[in-house]
Amino acid sequence: MGNSSENKPIVLITGITGLIGTKLAEAFVSQYTVVGLDVKRSEQSAAYVIECDLTDDASVTRGLTSVREQHGSRLASVIHLAAYYDFSGKPSPMYQKLTVEGTRRLLKALGEFQVEQFLFSSSLLVMEPAEEDQAIMESSPTKGSWDYPRSKLEAERVIQEERGNIPAVILRIAGVYDEDCHSIPLAQHISRIYEKRLESYFFPGDADHGQPFVHLDDLVVCFSKGGGTSQQAGPSRALLDRRTRRFELQGAPGSVRRIDSRRGVADDSNPEAGRQSRGLGAGENGR
């Protein structure tokens, strides 16, 4: 479903048919003309979706040409969600082809646009796990211990190299869930507990620590604060600073629905699961 409006600022979202992109489109459509890029169109999307494969030069050129011809060259915000993730943890060339080189390809193509800001969905998994009573901050050390976080860190470096004068915001997001779960690690562990399987009595790590998660609605609020133009962003205007800004989206304690780490809820597909600092309140996005 399209949502054209000549008077609305344009927000371009990659990976728009996924869990986060779908929710963002629904949240933004009343204030913005939301245009999405994804490998396949979705009739259910609240946005106008253009088919675009970020691993292919010609496809990106066609996709961005279509955006410019139909909506102009001024973009209030580009929200870059498209990335590769495999819950098995197995290596894949797609981490480099999509997450890293796809980001580079997108930024180069955006050079012909007036982009007010570029928001990148990185991962909390790029952070080095903290010890007990230590909070993870944007200035904390990073550690890409396997392909997914390594690809996100490399994509962050690509943004620094290729963004030019485009203000950039990097959100290092924790594991996303909602009322229907939509989180494979959480769903698997809830299933183990419900079915009283032997594995449900074991925690994959230090029981005094846990893996942070963030509710999808809270993530949408975060993007909404930084997703508009500088005139509309209000308190989030600092996000539009001409530097690349980084933020770890974990939420304040008590601000989201929490899951007790002592019950053993952790992403057991992640080698670092169970080692993140407790008390962070919310957490990382597995896409």
Give a nutshell description of this structure:
The protein is built from six helices and eleven strands. Helix 1 links the parallel strand 1 and strand 2.
Notes on the structure:
There is one protein chain. The strands form three sheets. A seven-stranded parallel sheet has the order 3-2-1-5-7-8-11, with helices on both faces. The radius of gyration is 19 Å and the shape is globular. With 287 residues, it is an alpha/beta fold. It has helices at 19-28, 57-71, 94-109, 147-162, 184-194, 216-226, and strands spanning 10-14, 33-38, 48-51, 74-75, 77-80, 114-115, 118-123, 168-173, 175-177, 213-215, 244-249. β1 (10-14), α1 and β2 (33-38) form a beta-alpha-beta unit. α1 packs across α6 and α3 packs parallel to α4 (147-162). Helix content is 28%, strand content 16%. The chain has a single domain (10-178, 213-250), classed as 3-Layer(aba) Sandwich (Rossmann fold).
Multimer state: single chain
How many domains, as an integer?
Answer: 1
Structural class: alpha/beta
CA-CA gap between termini: 24 Å
The name of the CATH superfamily reads NAD(P)-binding Rossmann-like Domain
Overall form: globular
Largest sheet: 7 strands, parallel
Q: Using the 3D structure, state the CATH architecture.
A: 3-Layer(aba) Sandwich
Report mean pLDDT, rounded to a whole number: 79
Estimate the helix proportion, in percent: 25-40%
What's the CATH first level?
Alpha Beta
Residue ranges: pLDDT <50 for 5 or more in a row?
Answer: 228-243, 250-287
Rg calculated over all Cα atoms: 19 Å
Q: β content, as a range?
A: 15-25%
CATH topology: Rossmann fold
Q: What's the number of helices?
A: 6
Total beta strand runs:
11
What is the element string, with H for helices and E for strands?
EHEEHEEHEEHEEHEHE
